[in-house]
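Quiz preparation item.
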């Protein structure tokens, strides 16, 4: 009878009410068949009832050929970012995605941007200035300053003048030294303060035990793109551990053809001003990334240095092609922490840190020979502006972790 009902559901000329009733009857039939199968499986030779564990084992055996929730969502993985302590994802009070080193390798990701493009609920788009913008839950800003980015729990948004770590700085951080990436979708300011408005991303780097040696890799491809990466780690007999990575990346970038710019498009200026159009968008980049981590007993050090050199700008300021701009960015941070265990239930963590950011920009906003007819001035060397930025943050943090009971954890 169950088979007949299922077949009739998909017949022609049946209204939605009939379809709903027949679908419900089909589910009941399937439920009774499944219950009968489990009840029969529970019967043993002496007709003794099975224990709960034996029943669950038989259910697992029944579904052993089917994919389970864990196979898709991996809710058994440990998540640190949601509560500042390791918990299985199923117990964490957050909507999260945890991506492991193995998955990063299988997806062929080259940097953090490639990984985020694969995360559900996260969108990546590029604007007219060649800058990548990141969208979480439908919220997107040009600077992506509403997303907090951390490396091993250290916020890298602090000293950046825009408040954004993903705006042309850390979104292309290399992945060779990454052990796990945790993405929390939703507000996280209660734990992490500013910038954690729509998401918190925590990059967890590899420890010495995860490396135990030296790994060297390199690549070369189109547009004169070259990359070399070194990852190393070692554990000494006295317990001292050290690990780190060095990554160098350089590319001439793909040259997108631009036939017209603002000066060629705007009629009053076109006959009188020189323009670099037709020309190409500038996508060159040279980047150096160095990371170091060391620990001995309760003492730990983490440090990260990054320099980012761009020659010229994507399509130039004011939508005018130019060829005489530079935009070097230097960013580094260092953190020293001490984490003694005061008792079986109480642990303290004291951190002191420094964050530094410098942007030494020289931007040509109009090309050589540009004439400002309003002021009556001609600029034979072009119009150049230098919006330089330097910012430094020094701070400290004390965190106490207390377990009043096996089922409760307090963070102060």
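Solution:
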């Amino acid at each position: 009878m169950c088979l007949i009902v299922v077949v009739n559901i998909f017949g022609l000329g049946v209204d939605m009410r009939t379809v709903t009733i027949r679908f419900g009857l089909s589910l009941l039939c399937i439920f009774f068949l499944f219950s009968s199968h489990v009840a029969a499986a529970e019967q043993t030779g002496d007709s003794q009832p099975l224990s709960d564990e034996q029943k669950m084992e038989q259910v697992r055996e029944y579904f052993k050929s089917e994919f389970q929730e864990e196979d898709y969502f991996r809710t058994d993985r440990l998540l640190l970012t949601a509560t500042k302590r390791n918990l299985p994802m199923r117990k964490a009070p957050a909507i999260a995605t945890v991506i492991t080193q193995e998955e990063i390798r299988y997806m062929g990701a080259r940097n953090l941007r490639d990984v985020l493009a694969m995360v559900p609920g996260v969108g990546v788009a590029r604007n007219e200035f060649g800058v990548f913008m990141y969208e979480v839950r439908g919220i997107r800003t040009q600077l992506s300053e509403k997303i907090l980015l951390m490396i091993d729990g250290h916020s890298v948004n602090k000293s950046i003048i825009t408040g954004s770590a993903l705006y042309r700085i850390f979104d292309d951080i290399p992945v060779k030294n990454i052990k796990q990436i945790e993405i929390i979708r939703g507000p996280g300011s209660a734990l992490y303060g500013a910038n954690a408005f729509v998401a918190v991303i925590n990059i967890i780097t590899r420890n010495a035990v995860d490396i135990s040696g030296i790994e060297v890799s390199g690549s070369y491809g189109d547009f004169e793109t070259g990359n070399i990466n070194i990852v190393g780690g070692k554990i000494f007999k006295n317990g001292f551990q050290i690990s780190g990575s060095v990554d160098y990346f350089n590319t001439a970038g793909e040259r997108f053809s631009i036939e017209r710019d603002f000066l060629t498009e705007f009629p009053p200026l076109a006959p009188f001003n020189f323009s670099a159009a037709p020309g190409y968008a500038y996508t060159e980049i040279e980047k150096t990334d160095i990371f170091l981590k060391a620990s001995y007993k309760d003492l730990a050090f983490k440090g990260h240095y990054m320099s980012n050199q761009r020659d010229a700008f994507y399509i130039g300021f004011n939508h005018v092609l130019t060829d005489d701009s530079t935009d070097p960015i230097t960013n580094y941070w260092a953190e020293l922490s001490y984490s003694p265990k005061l008792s079986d239930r109480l642990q303290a963590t004291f951190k002191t840190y420094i964050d530094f950011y410098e942007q030494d920009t020289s931007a040509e906003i109009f090309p050589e020979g540009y004439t400002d007819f309003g002021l009556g001035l001609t600029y034979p060397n072009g119009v150049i502006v230098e919006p330089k930025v330097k910012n430094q943050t020094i701070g400290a943090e004390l965190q106490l972790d207390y377990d009043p009971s096996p089922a409760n954890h307090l963070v102060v």
